[in-house]
Amino acid sequence: MAPAYGESFASWVDRMALRNGRPPWTMAEALGLDVHASSDVRSLAYGVVATPKTYRAIEAATGVSSETVRGMHLEMFDGSVLDLAGVRVGDKESVRRAESREWAQFFGSLACPTCLAASEGAWLVWWKLSWAAACPMHRTLLVDLCPRCRVPVRRARPASLHVCLAHGCRPRCDAARSSAGPYVISRSRRSARAR
Prior knowledge:
By secondary structure, the protein is mainly α. The protein is 38% helix and 2% strand. The two termini are 24 Å apart. Mean pLDDT is 79; it is low at 155-176.
């Protein structure tokens, strides 16, 4: 399964797992990542940075180029809007230090419900940047909670507005989205192009 353009690594792994009927950690393990069901994903810098060896292993397992896989990690913003120098895979403290100083959600994300529905649940990597506030395409604010029922929107569920579909409030969620003004849209466009 090819990643969607701009998709985050964790989203891609979750979507492959869903398509194959497997837990996400087993899909990550199949890609060559040293992951176990009880491991602490924060120490792995999962979706933040990876080693060249890991990128090559993922390329060998999937046929997706190392360059594309690197572009799915927050590492793609290193040296522009983020400073990830010193973050090392397997070193929880180095990840914690970077997470506390950088303007990014290392292990969470906002989302555009309309983009999620249109892309079969692909979460974009730039949504993880803390100043990402609105979807420039749909001109709506990014969310981490359903605007109507306040249930967290999460990855690793069927496509669309994931958790809200389970609670049957999808039509109300669509109606409740907040539109974003021109200033917020222009700032979010810059976040999306920060590569």
